[in-house]
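Here we describe the complex-level prediction in full. Unlike the single-chain runs in Section 2.1, the two entities below were treated as one system.
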Amino acid sequence: MSGSTIVSIRSLKRSFGDVRAVDGIDLDITEGEFLTLLGPSGSGKTTVLRMIAGFEKPDSGTITLAGKDVSQLPPYERDVNTVFQDYALFPHMDVLANIEYGLRVKGFAKQECRSRALTALKQIRLEGYENRKPAQLSGGQRQRVALARALVNQPAVLLLDEPLGALDLKLREQMQIELKALQREVGITFVFVTHDQEEALSMSDRIAVFNHGKIEQIGTPREIYENPKSEFVSEFVGQTNRIEYDGKKINIRPEFVTISRASSTGGRSVQGTLRDAIFVGASTRYLFDTSIGFPMISTQSNNQLKVGDVVTLSWQEEKEFLVQQ
Amino acid sequence: MLQEISNTMHKKPKLRLVALLTAPILWLVVAYLGALATLLVAAFFTIDSFTGNVIQTFNLGNFHDMFTDAAYKNVVLRTVGIALLVTVVCTVLAIPMAFYMAKIAKPRSQKILVALILTPLWASYLVKIYAWRTMLEPGNGVLDWLLGPLGFSSPGFGGPAIIIGLSYLWLPYMILPIYAGLERLPNNLLDASGDLGAHNWHTFRRIVLPLIFPSLVAGSMFTFSLSLGDYITATIIGGKLQMLGNVVYQNFSINLPFAATIATIPVTIMAIYLWMVRRTGALASL
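The structure predicted for the assembly as a whole is:
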């Protein structure tokens, strides 16, 4: 990542009653990147997003946007736009009026608003829908209008609050691809909130993993997945076999555990008895009871194993990772 | 026995409908439409000026008198004016109050506020208006006592007093529908508007106001029509000022048909008002 820092967050805190929703966060967001805030519900990721947008005020700490401290500014004085979880389209306005809203508010000439809104409408492939009301659109179309309504303002940062949460799986996957392509095309910094680890891994340049109001780890999807720094991250992003081997605590991802009928080939291996096999389509998750006393999972392409079969499970040492307890 | 009735009813949906609707329809037709029809018919009767008996023959004389006498025209204009002003005052007071209740107050105080708004509705109308009489009393009323040191005085009895009194009486009927409308308005629409660069006033005008318009209409139907028909407030704190209701009331014992003729005016105005409201489309989304 070579760009400069566009958003800089320092010691950010926010409580709701007794709950410390955001508990001291430092985060630098690089210009032009696709950053995902990933975490379970209640981990503080949405609150951070809402504080960047200006919907919530921090109890303490600062948010700097393009070099300017915006922590105490109202939303309408920040050069960011938001795509809301349930879209928040204005129900009494048609698609075009919704998209034009931000431009009209900022006092652009009518013609200018119209032509920019129509361009945005084309970008999201909804030409011909300009006079529809939001209620007459499908979920995916509303999603795209919400996106256009925000992007047409060319904000410094686009904030997306679980924007794909309400869509069905197929549409969701399609929108993930579209969204990523759109981000590359417009070059605007995206800050994307989700609790879906697959979504985070597939779309982001970097992921910040949230837990209990703190960032557990921040890094590229590959770093997060292959080198999780904490037990929480390893559990939340992908699955992990947590075992004791040769008196050492180690972690190994299920897809790195191979199954063979031959006996031990040296290196890292244990004997496993198949307890259960869960078919998940392209692959199968095999659950083993092992000779070292820890249950292990191996995710492999579909295999001819039967419950009760005794096999050798092995893996390469460099695929193991250590985490802080 | 009950089981048998229930079984028969189940087999005969028409009978079920009859059992369900007979009472309410009878009530509507006899008590409501019947009274209105009687009123309308009576408006065309006249009175024997010597005996004071009602003469039941069709006659347009009352309407002729009403339309030609400037005094009645003034009462009509004054009454409509008062009803409109009361509606405006209630709207202006109710919107911020309802907004606070629906969008700012914590859930606990929200419930308390709704209860507080409803409480005055349990008190007798007369008690409340006599309370205002004490407040407005020129010279030794509460308002004079309060405002006197500041160099102001009570408006005394008359038009302003009526507007104050009626606005006070009908305010809950305006707050509650607006509150309900704002409750239904998702908060994130307000967030979205601010996010897109709109200041609060702009958000209020472009987002909030259009979306709660049906609620405003609902509230205004109460404040406007209740004001239009009122005569007790005018009697108690209106001084010499008369509203349509007073004219009806005064004619009631002397010239019943003429009272009925006058009474058709608020009915007509309300019908026109509803028709106008209908054209805005606000009724469809109530």
